Amino acid sequence: xxxxxxLLSIPDSISLTEALSDVALIFTKxxxxxxxxxxxxLEKYICFHKELKWGVYKHEDKYFLVNIGHxxxxxxxxxxxxxxxxxEVLTDDPxxxxxxxxxxxxxxxxxxxSDSEKLFLQRITEYDSKQEAVKAEELVKQITAKRKAEExxxxxxxxxEVIRKxxxxxxxxxxxxxxSVLDIRKVINNYSSxxxxxxxxxxxxxxxxxxxxxxxxxxxxxEAAEEERRKAAEAAEEERRKAVEAAAEKRxxxxxxxxxxxxxxxxxxxxxxxxxxxxxxxxYKLLANQSGLVNDQFWFEFRHRKIILGMPIGMVQExxxxxxxxxRSVTKDGEQIKEKYGKYFKTLSSGVKSxxxxxxxxxxxxxxxxxxxxxxxxxxx
Length: 381
Description:
The protein is α+β, with helices and mostly antiparallel strands and 381 residues long. It contains 10 helices and 13 strands.
């Protein structure tokens, strides 16, 4: 740090800016004998002790310690401020420390400085002695940095020399055989230094020959192992292919068997259906003939469980089951009956099933010319 930073770092030291409001009043009452002296110029001051009895100012690049005597009244008369220049400080000369201390001691014989003031004055006089330590530290840093730089240069020079010698040795070895550069470098790096490797040139050649033979043998072994793995992989792939084909063939045969079974089942169902239809046709042949419904459309509707107009009541019951709640009415035009089909019981809003039956269909019948009840109308309920 510089001198002004040092002064402001001393315990209980305050800057001119911090002390200005208090110290200005003191300096306006300076004794006439000090007014033309450099220590009377307040703007030159760097710092003060917090009690404002000591201050340091700068004049012509030199620093001076001043003892400030505050104004006092005696017998009704006010004494003016005194500014006693005690000594020059921060001279950068360690031999001046004793002179500075002597001047300060002589100035404080009759006064009783506080512990804070004593520490303030002590730190100011320690600056010069501390500068020796700072300079010594700087010298150590300079020498250390210089030695490190020289060491880096020597190391770099050595590394470049080693690289050059390695390149020369590699070229020499390459000229003596058919070795790879990687193998050459690997063998050279096993030696403690490039000089040791240069001295063992013949031994390196022998080692490289052995290494080359070993590599050839290892290459053959790798190739044989690779060939064995390839054949094993081919065999495994062939085995897998056969297994896939066998599984596919098995699934194909199973599909054929399943399709054949389904075909036979469908044929049997169709045969039974036709047989049942023939039986129904035979059963209701007379009724159908008497009803005048013998076309293919009639049998198509009947086979699909649908009711059509003109269908005999027996065929309706064959489709829907027995009728319920028959109602008969007779008029001058003839006799008519109504029957309900699809009986069920509703679930009420309470969740209980109704006891009153409901129906899904109502059919009306009238007798035809052959005295057979046939459908004349129907509606969904």
